[in-house]
Amino acid sequence: MPEAIGHALRDRRAGLDTLAFNRCGLRSGHGGMRLSSLAFADHAPIPARYTADGEGVSPPLQWNDVPPGASELVLIVEDADAPTSEPLVHAIVVDLPPGDGGLAEGAIASAGHEGEHVHEGRNSYLRKGWLPPDPPPGHGDHRYAFQLFALGPGERFKGTPGRGDVLAAVRERGIGSGLLVGTYARPDGTIKDEEPAARTVKPAG
């Protein structure tokens, strides 16, 4: 997306209220889990390695304090600052064993990386796998919410579930949640106005 469009849409953002974490009626205070990453701290920048400007692999994740009675965990990663009415979904992983304690770097498949054959849902591009952060230049910081939910016993996910399927399952049998936020921004490359004598007019197109 051209930088000019990023600037024009700078104030248009989905917002934190639209995240699954805030839509499902389940907060971290209810069976709160700790979700973290060795790659970045909470509310700190995500290294370029895990974005569209680097290798684009999924970052490592660790979790603790899974509530007793959890039969599976679900991960959904969303961009709260996408210039859309709903957050952009970057990854969904379901059927995660509660006792695994985390996901290794690159566990979620991405372009050029096979992943670890976890049960992936579909991102906003209607594809499986990790969609690396790729914010519009000039749009400012984007907040990427890694949201983990613990589910009680119930019917397993089938096929390639989407965001709606995750929200429905969490509302029905969610017993715990955890949240980790990482940020990423494309540098603002706006060129300051040149002196009038130095300006040149270029043909359109």
List the helices and strands and how they pair.
Elements: H1 3-8, H2 20-23, E1 34-36, E2 44-45, E3 61-64, E4 72-79, E5 88-96, E6 102-103, E7 119-120, E8 142-151, H3 163-173, E9 174-184
Parallel strand pairs: 2-9
Antiparallel strand pairs: 1-3, 3-6, 4-5, 4-8, 5-7, 8-9
Entry keywords:
single chain, 205 residues, alpha+beta, globular
Written overview of the protein:
The chain is of the alpha+beta class and 205 residues long. The chain has a single domain (3-198), classed as Phosphatidylethanolamine-binding Protein (Alpha-Beta Complex). Helices cover 10% and strands 25% of the residues. The chain is built from three helices and nine strands. It has helices at 3-8, 20-23, 163-173; strands at 34-36, 44-45, 61-64, 72-79, 88-96, 102-103, 119-120, 142-151, 174-184. A six-stranded mixed sheet has the order 2-9-8-4-5-7. The protein has a three-stranded antiparallel sheet with strand order 1-3-6, with no helix packed on it. Strand 4 (72-79) and strand 5 (88-96) form a beta hairpin. The protein starts with a helix and ends in a 21-residue tail after the last strand. Residues 1-10 and 190-205 have low confidence and may be disordered.
Number of strands: 9
- Any idea what the radius of gyration is? 19 Å
- Terminal-residue CA separation: 16 Å
Helix content: 10-25%
**Mean pLDDT across all residues, rounded?**
85
CATH superfamily annotation: PEBP-like
Number of helices: 3
Number of domains: 1
**SSE run:** HHEEEEEEEEHE
CATH class bucket? Alpha Beta
> Any guess at the CATH architecture?
Alpha-Beta Complex
Structural class: alpha+beta
In the CATH scheme, what's the topology name?
Phosphatidylethanolamine-binding Protein
Subunit arrangement of the protein: single chain
